[in-house]
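Standup notes
- HV: blocked on the assembly model, inputs below
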Amino acid sequence: MPLFDVYPLYNVTPVSGKGAYVYDDNGTEYLDLYGGHAVISIGHAHPNYTKAITEQVNKLGFYSNAIQNPLQVELANKIEALSGCEGYNLFLCNSGAEANENALKLASFKTGKERVVAFKNGFHGRTSAAVAATDNKNIIAPINAQQKVTILELNDILGVKTELEKGDVCAVIIEFIQGVGGLDQATADFYEQVFALCKANNTMFIADEVQSGYGRSGKFFAFQYYNVTPDIISIAKGMGNGFPIGGVLIHPDIEAKYGMLGTTFGGNHLACAAGLSVLNTIEDEALIDNVNEVSEYFISEAKTIPQIKNIKGRGLMLGLEFDFEVGELRKKLIYEHHIFTGGASNKKLLRILPPLNISKAQIDVFFKALKAVLN
Ligand SMILES: Cc1ncc(COP(=O)(O)O)c(C=O)c1O
């Protein structure tokens, strides 16, 4: 049976990984500055991670959400401790789209309203309401298009005010650093005013931290650079270092009711063990400090390259903008220098999303290769 052909593929077959490296079926080593799309947080095959998963699967991999699962409680407490988001409740699911789907659903339950405000170049996933709130017509099927969504420009505070004051908006959903769209950020003023407008209009403020969360921005959450308290925070990617897990942090003002949300696989024992080992490693290895240190080094090195016109993003969620499309550059980095990087909907942007424990020496390898390709 052929695979449903929806992914354009690079001709590389990774079969193993270690830290910031993956190895293909010929034993060639690749430096991974893409992290499988911002997913690899603590590095490939981290020993804490493989141990935690192995031990857990040998005991109990899964049981449904009809029983006590102390691992979920431990994970929730650890997220609270490391993120500083005190008092929130955690609901666990399996992916970023699912996290946003649940976030939007909660916002609608809480407010009784149905329209969503989202932003140009935003990406929130490929399921029902999440894809409707995504600014990409090519991935919105007619069945999704029936959702009520208004897409506004980042920084259009008057637009947000006008829409929210109409009284039918259940949620504003926003990435504090856009991922797929190309690392754009709004101004601090904008985020803070949107938050105030949400408060004033009984609209839930949803921070989509699926990509920017878990330390990637240099703080646990990217919204923590600003003076806002989201009603709902969606998380996924870095949370499981590749194990499928997602979640929503839910402000205590939103009251739970039995059956309001639910999932078969979400929060299973194996996913929680993976998630706990990620958080323990982020803490024990001070990975957020490393993000900030390596980020500063990366940016200072990038500034010395004249072909780079703009450096975007924060932490280890970075983009290098050129005045040409980077497709060929990425191919040369992969095939000639064995370095994975990412692309964006902005075709001139090279995205850098390495494991959070990448070293400065590994960044040097990247810049040496980049200079060789550019010259
Ligand atoms: C900000 C953001 N939200 C949501 C998603 C969707 O996550 P998933 O692919 O796990 O459904 C992504 C994926 O790239 C993302 O970057």
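- HV (later): unblocked. The chain has a mean pLDDT of 98. Residues 14-46+286-374 form a domain with the Aspartate Aminotransferase, domain 1 fold (CATH 3.90.1150.10).
- Next: hand off to the docking folks.
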